[in-house]
Design goal:
Chain lengths: 393, 404
């Protein structure tokens, strides 16, 4: 370990000192789970609660997995961009690149028993919950092998076994749903929490405040996460909200403002929020983040903000670059290794896209499936009564 | 729906229809009544709708099989049934289901400690606790959404709208999340919610509290709608709705809560998609639901005295329509009159007219007539309010016109 601390970034210097093959070196580094403490970029700002500490416990393995997963998400979104332009993805396609740290950091702090529900910008959240690239691309292209059998589309990704409840097209409608999930968790005594994600645009919806009131009234284990990317489609934050301090909007509900481009800060905040929600009821997290693409593929994203702003944020605050710098400065991997990882990820994504392109479209009979659930009392029959009625249980 | 498309195919295969049989009109026969007919006394709180004759012919034989068999087997008159009011029947159904399945919970405004604004949930909070009978704040959008979110995980909430009209505030949740989540998630999530509440024109409640939402909700794919009209079918439909894996909207009527009827002691459930044959007949099919059933039955008394033999069907299932029962009736009588409380424009009657015309056009001797409420906001003044809904006299006139 001491030896690796002395070495510089150069690959050539590394080899003679380590006296081991590059492969062995890489293997040794990536499985290292010994704790590493990193400071978050900025301290947390809190409202009605004590902010957690800036020092985040992580490990080399975790940082590498952050890098890998965020690169995968980024690549997926870029691939979706090209597919949309090639007219293989139609309708609305809302891309998440720039905001990957929120999805990744959250996953690192919670289990699959905790529920996540989000809006239409859900591709990466789906991936974070364990969804596959192939299912994601198939769904985007409307194929049978998609996660919703091709019937949902970009805005309706769901993964029930990983407690990912979607995927909702109407702004803010997931807030009451999220409270319902939290209610069910409390009802069934699950000891799990629900993370309800919404944007700065949705933060002005009345149903959000209704849901907050209910959650606070009944001490529901709900964590409301405002992914503040500062633009509600084309309207900047300062033009749509009188008070852009979204974490304070809960009034009687405690809140925390987090740098959403720092995956470790997100992880710390989510861990803190989960503990809080299980004991004291709801809490709001505001993730200060940024999206590089426009609101959706139909929006160029540059009519309401300057390209300089976008590239500025990309240079200074990009989440993947932050983790990359961390990895390199802690000598967990070299630049070349990271570049190789990126290449692998790119190949993986391309392979998934190619496979998804070959997938079949749903059959026409699928139009009528899953409207109702077959079961007692729900079989409908037409004038010729050809369908069997269900029997009483 | 695919069911209707299939039905259309079957209907066009036959094309015989009988001309009006004037001899039948002259003979006021009640020979169509089946041997087993029970007459229940239905005492309404208001004289104008006190007539109710429940003929229990059309239940699914399987569902009631146990009840009837047990009675015959034991041949002891224990359990001859008990008399109760409609809201008590709803409460009984709800309580039985909550006893049976711990996942069933109730949420709504004043359902818990207050006992429900129409006493449907009276006593339940004491029995089951505050978490299972949840008093919500006044935020229909949020608590409907909350119920749907809870249903996604496996709970079976019964969401009460204090008045159906308030559920307009939750329309987004009902349409997009309740109706469509099963489809857009590719079948991953089921939403076994029951959304229930009183609606319809009451006694001078004003325009905003006299809404009939069945016409607004009927287009939402993925939901089922049922309307109860007697204590018997209220309890049965409530139980069936709770047990159903689909989202069901149960329409009750403000004026029917105090109807009294004797219902069986045994457990029973009504089929959600089935229509109820209230009074078999030969001359004309009258399709109705909810409170209008009683206006129709009152008109039927007058009609019988005048020599007509109407067949009255309470369609009960507003979405999907029970085109089987309706179709058989149309094939028999060849005339249809729809009597409903919805508005004429875009109402249940409008859809039913279209469905009947599409599927049974060859069997009709006369155009389908639809009597609905006037397309006006319900006025406050009592006389004006009476004129917005269909009255028995108008039903009699319409039947006479159709049977000409």
């Amino acid at each position: 370990m001491a030896l690796s601390r002395l070495s510089s970034r150069s690959n050539i210097l590394l080899q003679p000192f380590a006296a081991a093959s590059p492969a062995a070196l890489r293997r040794q580094i990536s499985t290292d789970t010994s704790p590493l403490t990193v400071e978050t970029s900025v301290p947390f700002t809190s409202h009605l609660c004590e902010a957690p500490s800036r020092a985040v416990e992580t490990s080399s393995k975790e940082l590498l997995s952050f890098f890998h997963d965020m690169t995968l998400m980024r690549r997926m979104e870029i691939a979706a961009d090209s597919l949309y332009k090639a007219k293989l993805i139609r309708g609305f396609c809302h891309l998440y690149d720039g905001q990957e740290a929120v999805a990744i950091g959250m996953e690192a702090a919670i289990t699959k028993k905790d529920a996540i529900i989000t809006s239409y910008r859900d591709h990466c959240t789906f991936l974070g919950r364990g969804g596959g690239l192939f299912e994601a691309f198939s769904e985007l292209m409307g194929r049978k092998t998609g996660c919703s059998n091709g019937k949902g589309g970009s805005m309706h990704f769901y993964k029930k076994d990983a407690s990912f409840y979607g995927g909702h097209g109407i702004v803010g409608a997931q807030a009451p749903l999220g409270c319902g999930l939290a209610f069910a968790q409390k009802y069934s005594k699950d000891e799990a929490v629900t993370f309800t994600l919404y944007g700065d645009g949705a933060a002005n919806q009345g149903q959000l405040f209704e849901a907050l009131n209910i959650a606070a009234l009944w001490d529901l284990p709900a964590v409301l996460v405002c992914e503040n990317n500062h633009y509600g489609m084309g309207t900047a934050e300062w033009r749509s909200a009188k008070s852009p301090a979204y974490f304070k909007r809960g009034d009687y509900v405690p809140g925390l403002k987090v740098d959403g481009m720092d995956a470790l800060a997100v992880k710390q905040a989510c861990k803190f929020a989960k503990e809080h929600a299980l004991k004291n009821g709801p809490i709001i997290l505001e993730m200060d983040t940024y999206r590089y693409h426009g609101h959706s593929m139909s929006d160029p994203g540059s009519t309401y903000r300057t390209r300089d702003e976008i590239s500025g944020v990309r240079q200074v605050r990009d989440p993947i670059d932050r983790v990359r710098k961390l990895i390199i400065s802690h000598d967990i991997a070299t630049e070349k290794e990271l570049k190789d990882m990126e290449k692998e990820v790119r190949k993986e994504v391309d392979a998934a896209v190619a496979q998804a392109k070959e997938s079949p479209i749903p059959e026409s009979s699928e139009l009528f499936t899953n409207i109702y659930v077959k079961g007692f009392g729900s079989e409908s029959f037409g004038a010729d009564r050809k369908e069997l009625r269900a029997t009483l249980p | 729906m695919s069911a209707i498309i299939r039905g259309a195919g079957a209907a066009t295969a036959l094309s015989t229809f009988n001309p009006v049989d004037s001899k039948k009109l002259a003979a006021p026969s009640r020979t169509n009544l089946p041997a087993r007919s029970k007459r229940y006394i239905v005492a309404g709180s208001d004289a104008s709708k006190s007539f109710g004759s429940g003929l229990r012919v059309r239940h699914s034989q399987k569902l009631i099989a146990n009840a009837v068999a047990t009675k015959a087997d034991t041949s002891v008159t224990t359990g001859t049934g008990h008399e109760l009011l409609l809201y008590e029947a709803l409460q009984e159904g709800l309580e039985e289901e909550m006893d049976r399945d711990p996942h069933v919970c109730v949420m709504g405004e004043d359902v818990g400690h207050y006992g429900g604004s129409y006493k449907v949930t009276k006593g339940l909070a004491d029995k089951f606790g505050d978490l299972r009978v949840l008093d919500t704040p006044i935020c229909e959008n949020a608590f409907t959404g909350m119920g749907i979110g809870a249903a996604m995980t496996g709970l079976r909430p019964v969401i009460e709208g204090m008045n159906m009209g308030f559920l307009l505030l939750a329309f987004n949740q009902i349409s997009n999340n309740c109706g469509m989540l099963h489809y857009t998630s590719g079948g991953q999530f089921t939403i076994p919610v029951v959304i229930r509440g009183p609606g319809g024109v009451g006694r001078q409640l004003g325009a905003e509290h006299s809404q009939r939402l069945e016409s607004y909700f009927q287009s939402i794919p993925g939901i089922q709608m049922v309307a109860c009209s007697t204590p018997y079918n209220a309890k049965g439909l409530m139980k069936a709705a709770i047990r159903s894996e689909n989202p069901v909207i149960l329409f009750e009527h403000v004026l029917l809560y105090n109807l009294k009827e004797k219902i069986p002691d045994e457990e029973y459930i009504c089929n959600l998609e089935e229509a109820e044959m209230v009074r078999p007949g030969e001359h004309i099919t009258i399709l109705t639901y909810s409170r209008m059933r009683y206006h129709v039955m009152q008109a039927a008394k007058t009609l019988v005295n005048k020599g007509y033999d109407p067949e009255v069907i309470d369609i009960r299932s507003l979405k999907p329509f029970d085109l089987y029962t309706i179709g058989n009736s149309v094939k028999k009588t060849h005339r249809v009159l729809i009597v409903e409380e919805c508005m004429r424009t875009g109402g249940i009657g409008a859809s039913l007219t279209a469905a009947i015309n599409e599927n049974f056009h060859d069997y009709l001797d006369a155009p389908v007539m639809c009597l609905s409420s006037q397309d006006v906001p319900t006025p406050y003044a009592g006389t004006l309010e009476e004129w917005t809904v269909v009255q028995p006299a108008q039903i009699v006139t319409a039947v006479e016109q159709l049977c000409q």
